[in-house]
Amino acid sequence: MKISKVGVIGAGQMGCGIAQVCAAAGYKVAIYDAAPDRTKAGIAGIDASLARRVKSSKLTEEARAATLSHITAASDFAQFSDCDLVIESATENEGVKRQIFEAVTPHLKSECIIGSNTSSISITRLAATTGRPERFMGIHFMNPVPVMELVELIRGIATDETVFKTIQAFALTLGKTIAISEDYPAFIVNRILLPMINEAIYTLYEGVGSVTAIDTAMKLGAHHPMGPLELADFIGLDTCLSVMQVLHDGLADSKYRPCPLLVKYVEAGWLGRKVKRGFYDYRGETPVPTR
Ligand code: 3HC
Question: Residue 226 C-alpha to ligand 1 middle, in angstroms?
Fold first, then answer.
């Protein structure tokens, strides 16, 4: 099956990254967000990201213009009617995702494949909300999407093999490497990464080390490109908490208990970089630890 046009739902950091890599690979892209202002800001962000690459001679001006020309803002799901693939990248909340799938599916042509960029939620359960579970699968990108090499692919119980093969080939055209995961809570990357981040937050909560000590320890002591608390802010603390809740509920093991300090930060609205405050305060020139 040939993919020419991709619809992206959600213009947050992941949705915009997905739109950018698809457009850069030559696909037509329509991006939709429930808040039209976010779509506008998201496309401006993609433009800025491409401009930085032109400035550092990593991209030509022509390639930047071509990539941008492939992206349009969709104001409603009717504009997805000619999409061959739709990738949902909304907030990591099962209720929100279910509502989106129920709303978008009637507008799609029957052969359109639906993918979810969920970080943790059951693909089989999400697929059941679409009425076409055989054309549904997990397509999990990593943040920042233009930089990270991996895409995790997850089959639901009903995913058609030709659909899987089509998406496998599609991901390769984006220049990504694939890891295939079975459909269990948080798949592979987040099953391993998020408990590590949660443990770093427990380490802070129990006073074993400060924010700076924990991040320095893991950056210089384990060669991680970002410390776990910096990475938590980068991913978004709401997403980190959602993933831990899915692991805790889905696997029923107390080792996945979300740290109360993570819960507190989310309740405070300190969600990390996107709101300029999390384990660091990003409102000034350099990030300052908040504890
Ligand atoms: N968007 C787009 N490009 C970005 C970017 C962003 N947010 N941040 C950095 N980049 C690009 C830069 O432009 C630069 O590109 P270039 O080499 O073509 O010039 C390149 O990345 C390297 O950037 P820098 O030199 O400024 O910065 P670093 O060397 O510090 O690298 C990083 C930045 C790649 C983000 C690195 O810190 C890193 O790998 N961090 C860990 C990221 C990670 O673990 N991601 C996975 C999170 S889990 C996940 O996403 C799953 C989800 O479901 C929760």
Answer: 9
Alpha carbon of 149 to ligand 1 centroid (Å): 10
Which listed residue (70, 140, 230, 242) is catalytic?
140
Alpha helices in the chain (DSSP H): 13-24, 36-55, 61-69, 94-104, 123-127, 161-173, 189-205, 211-222, 228-235, 237-251, 260-267
What was the pLDDT predicted at 1? 83
pTM above 0.90, yes or no: yes
**Distance between Cα 147 and ligand 1 center (Å):** 6
Query: Residue 141: its pLDDT value, please?
Result: 98
Mean pLDDT of 204-208: 98
Measured from the CB, is residue 108 less than 6 Å from ligand 1?
A: no
Asked whether 261 and 182 are in contact (CB, 8 A), the reply is no
Q: Which domains does the chain have, with CATH numbers?
A: 5-181 (3.40.50.720), 191-286 (1.10.1040.10)
